[in-house]
Amino acid sequence: MSDTDLETALRATLAGRAADAPAGDDLADTVTRVGTARRRRRRLAGAAAVIAVGAAAGLAGRGIVPVAGDAEPVPADTPAVGNLVTCGGTWPAFDPALLTERPALDPESDLGTAVRTTARPPIAARLIDSWTLVDHVGSTAYLLIWLDESAEARNIAPNGVVEATYEQAGDGSWSARGTGECRPERYFDDGLDPVEWRLPGDQPSPDATSVTILAHEIGCSSGQPADDRLAEPIVEYHEDTVDITLRITPPEGEVFTCIGNPETAVTVELDEPLGDRELRDGLWYPPRPATPEP
Q1: What predicted TM-score, i.e. pTM, was given to this entire model?
Q2: For the chain, what is the mean pLDDT?
Q3: Contact between 191 and 42 (Cβ < 8 Å)
Q4: CA 66 to chain CA mean position, Å
Q5: Among candidates 224, 225, 226, 242, which has minimal Cα distance to 234?
Q6: Half-sphere exposure of residue 9, counting CA atoms within 13 Å on the CB side?
Q7: Nearest to residue 88, comparing CAs of 156, 134, 149, 128?
Q8: Bridge-partner residues for 267, per DSSP?
Q9: 126: DSSP letter
Q10: Separation of first and last alpha carbons in the chain
Q11: How far apart are CA 196 and CA 218, in angstroms?
């Protein structure tokens, strides 16, 4: 084949490949579809986060997820560390900075007026220090209620913070839909459910390279055992602590009773000796020191 014929063949091949490649609009539609599907399953806080998840899902189909900078992609089965938090259940994910900064709900807004007048929560006004708006999705608003330091308030929420959900009617009025203690936990967009754990006895010895813990599924599961549904533990090493976070695949089915879930013994292998570091349950925010068996 002459040089001219080779050049002609190469040009034809490249043109064919270019014609088959998806256009920019098609790629954008694909990312949007992936992002939408994930929002139906569990919504992330903020449009930027949704777009990022959609892009990551596209790469995950090839077995990799994107990382910052010029670092090599990491395997898709590498557990992602949760940088957002939630009050659990159907609550949205939010920046944990809200828990320390406590931005005040605008008292002059329609919602700010309602929570003080026509839509009071079932908490005495004298116990409430302030309100924080976490998210407003459609007609639903998610609020944190900060309580004072009194013993009466601590009986309601030992950690001093209550979650509240409000619904807005067609006429613009607000009503309280539910309240309860907010126990901030780290948020993971992996479709798995949270698991808490405790030690079966005293803190392991400093030379321990594995620890045995007792896992307890938090959600209702009609008492189903967790053995074959537990995901690989997430272990994070710090100077003074080792944090272990457990996750679990939801049980199959639609309706479950809350008769109590059995504990499951889990042996977690460590990459290095425990030393004098404290073991903590990494599910919670901030992580909680591991508690021994009562």
Answers
A1: 0.70
A2: 79
A3: yes
A4: 19
A5: 242
A6: 6
A7: 134
A8: 212
A9: G
A10: 83
A11: 7
